[in-house]
Structures are given as C-alpha cells and as structure tokens.
C-alpha cells in the first residue's frame, strides 16, 4: 500500500473516532425549543432513569429539564417521590404538540400521581413557574434542536 492509501485510512479512522466522540458526548444532553425558548435537556432513557427522574436532586438549572421518551402515546403518570423542589410537567404528543401541563407541583403532593388528559409520548419536567414565565400552553409546538 502506498503513502496516499495509508494517509486516507488514517483520515477515515480519525473521522470515525470524532463522530463516535461527538455522539457519546451529546448522548445525555441535547436541546429543544418551545416558544423561542431553548431548553437544555437530559434524556431519561432506561426504565431506572425514568423511574428516578429528578428525584434526589437539589435543583434544576434555569432553562433546563428532563425529557422522558416513550415508545408509544399513553397516559403516563408521574409523582413527586423524593423530589426536593417544585416542577412543571409538560406532556407532549407524538406530533410534538403540548397536550397537557401540570404547573407548580410541590414535593408535598407525593404520593399523588399526575397524568395528562390526552395521551402523550414525551414528558418534559422543568422548574416550577417555567410555563407561566414563558407563556407555554397546551397546543404549543415543541422543536427538537
């Protein structure tokens, strides 16, 4: 093999490594937009991550949230078990339209369950007051960035 062939193979390997690094780096944190507000999100992927959610954390950074992704639309319920701060919960359908919102849910509401009036496929948890502050309402569109 000549020097040009070896050089091309090295470039190809480096490109693959960069792609793998970039995908791994961005696997847990991405962003979405609602009403021109960018929200950094952490995705709860596994059943244990979905069960734990934001439980045990002291706070959630401003304009950030946790996104729960489900395989199909349904009436997914959430509770405030082991939560240390209040949140808004935004239910989003398969067409990325907000179908329900529960605002200012306090840790003291546990063991009460909260679920949407309409099936959803995505659920976004954000700091309490976020929806009011940014005028987010049922019917708004969500865009993944």
Can you give a write-up of this model?
This protein is an alpha+beta fold and 145 residues long. The protein has one domain (28-144): Jelly Rolls. The chain has 3 helices and 7 strands. It has a 7-stranded mixed β-sheet. Strand 2 (37-44), helix 2 and strand 3 (64-74) form a beta-alpha-beta unit. Residues 23-27 have low confidence and may be disordered.
Summarize the SSE layout with pairings:
Elements (H helix, E strand, L loop, with lengths): L2 H23 L3 E6 L2 E8 L2 H6 L11 E11 L12 E6 L5 E8 L14 E8 L2 H4 L8 E3 L1
Parallel strand pairs: 2-3
Antiparallel strand pairs: 1-2, 1-7, 3-6, 4-5, 4-6
Helix and strand run: HEEHEEEEHE
What CATH architecture would you give? Sandwich
Radius of gyration: 19 Å
Largest sheet: 7 strands, mixed
Mean pLDDT: 88
Question: What distinguishing features does this structure have?
Answer:
145 residues, Jelly Rolls, seven-stranded mixed sheet, 3 helices, 7 strands
Could you give a quick summary of the protein structure above?
The chain has helices at residues 3-25, 47-52, 130-133, and strands spanning 29-34, 37-44, 64-74, 87-92, 98-105, 120-127, 142-144. By secondary structure, it is of the alpha+beta class. It has a single domain, classed as Protein of unknown function DUF192 (Jelly Rolls, Sandwich), CATH 2.60.120.
């Amino acid at each position: 093999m000549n020097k040009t062939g070896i050089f091309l193979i090295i470039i190809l390997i480096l490109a693959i490594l960069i792609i793998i690094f970039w995908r791994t780096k961005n696997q847990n944190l991405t962003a979405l937009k609602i009403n021109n507000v960018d929200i950094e999100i952490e995705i709860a992927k596994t059943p244990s991550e979905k069960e734990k959610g934001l439980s045990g954390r002291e706070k959630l950074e401003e304009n950030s949230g946790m996104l729960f992704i489900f395989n199909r639309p349904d009436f997914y319920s959430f509770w405030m078990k082991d939560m240390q701060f209040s949140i808004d919960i935004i239910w989003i359908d398969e067409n990325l339209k907000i179908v329900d919102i529960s605002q200012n849910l306090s840790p003291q509401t546990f063991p009460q369950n909260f679920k949407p009036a309409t099936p959803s496929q995505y659920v976004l948890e954000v700091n309490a007051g976020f929806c009011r502050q940014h005028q987010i309402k049922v019917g708004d569109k969500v865009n993944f960035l």
